[in-house]
Design brief:
Layout lengths: L31 E7 L4 H8 L8 E7 L3 H9 L5 E4 L3 H8 L5 E8 L8 E5 L17 E5 L5 H10 L10 E5 L1 H9 L5 E5 L2 H9 L2 E5 L8 E7 L1 H4 L2 H22 L5 H11 L5 H6 L13 H13 L16 H10 L3
Parallel strand pairs: 1-2, 6-7, 6-8
Antiparallel strand pairs: 3-10, 4-10, 5-8, 5-9
Length: about 350
């Protein structure tokens, strides 16, 4: 695998390059070359690669950076890359509705426990006296990380349920990672919806206060999913082999950050092989959750699609059953055992 992209926050897209590092040796020479499209953090993927799990399956990986989900989806559909990840947002649903051909094959990240702040609503320091609950957001300025039609909209709709306030009652803007933190710091917005580790940064550096963690209102919801190109999906051995390696990395990730087993070794690996060189970031920012058996929350994907349709963000709804393919995760679990 050639590392071509800086792995940053789940919320951030990176298009930088870094010096390629030597690939781990395999017990047998890798025979299948797989390009992996990267848009954000690939923690479990990076663990799997560095520990040789893909090479053991006869796979030679190359990481390819992308600046947007639309760009990555098109590359997957045309087999320019064979593996990627994507969010269940309006852009993805609209692409599927236009018959962009890809397969949703596993969980990449989801909302975990009721206190999970992987995605969260935070109140700025200067607005905390006036915003004590979501009902107090009426008439206030809220910035949501990303573009309209993303999972942040779905989260806010869930957070506002029963409050008597809707998103239309709030002054909503959509900002990128650097702009949203600056807007919070200078008081240009009263509250933000943001992912980790940016949420931890906002609290530690700018005095933001947690109002609603995503875990409290959308427990189990998909934040991003693992995707295959049609060509890879048709190569059962390679597709299953990739899933086996990936799930081994997922389980190491979960053990390190959620079970606190082998944490130091995993953090050292991530510090060594990613541009995030501060071990404190890996150990203090809440780690996202990944399903150890690769299981996809299909009902939640449908809920998010229905929400985006009602919000007017999706014009030609896709039939998700045509794109969700759980075969490879199921076959991998047969080899690895269930967790």
């Amino acid at each position: 695998m050639r590392i071509c992209v800086a792995l940053l926050a789940l919320a951030c897209v990176v298009a930088g390059a870094c010096t390629p590092a030597a690939a781990p040796s395999a017990t047998t020479s890798p025979s299948v070359h797989i390009k992996v499209g990267i848009q954000g953090v690939g923690g479990p993927l990076e663990i799997a690669y560095r520990r040789g799990y893909f090479a053991e399956q006869g796979l030679d990986l190359e990481e390819v950076p992308f600046n947007s989900g639309a760009e990555a989806s098109q590359a997957l559909a045309t087999n320019q890359v064979q593996v990627g990840s994507g969010s269940p947002n309006a852009a993805t649903f609209n692409a599927l509705g236009r018959n962009i051909d890809l397969r949703i094959v596993g969980d990449w990240s989801h909302v975990g426990s009721p206190t999970d702040t992987t995605l969260a609503l935070l109140v700025g320091k200067n607005a905390q006296d006036n915003i004590k609950s979501v009902a107090d957001l009426k008439g206030r300025k809220l910035a949501i990380l990303g573009a309209p039609g993303n999972v942040g909209d779905f989260f806010m709709a869930r957070a506002l349920q029963g409050s008597g306030v809707s998103l239309s009652d709030i002054q909503v803007s959509y900002l990128g990672a650097s702009d949203i933190l600056a807007a919070l710091a200078n008081g240009a917005v009263d509250a933000i919806t943001i992912n980790e580790p940016l949420g931890t940064q906002a609290q530690q550096q700018f005095g933001a206060k947690l109002l609603v963690p995503a875990g409290a209102v959308m427990n189990g919801s998909e934040l991003s999913v693992l995707e295959y190109s049609p060509d890879l999906a048709n190569n059962t051995d390679a597709a299953t082999g990739f899933m086996i390696g990936y799930l081994r990395g997922v389980r190491d990730w979960n053990a390190a950050f959620h079970d606190k087993q082998g944490t130091a070794d995993v953090v050292n690996l991530l510090v060594q092989y990613t541009p995030i060189k501060d071990a404190n970031i890996w150990t203090t920012a809440p780690a996202w959750y990944v399903e150890p058996n690769g299981k996809i929350n299909v009902s939640d994907l449908q809920d998010q699609l229905d929400f985006q349709i009602q919000a007017g963000q999706v014009k030609s709804p896709p039939d998700l059953s045509k794109y969700v393919d759980s075969r490879f995760a199921e076959q991998a679990v047969q080899k690895l055992g269930a967790q």
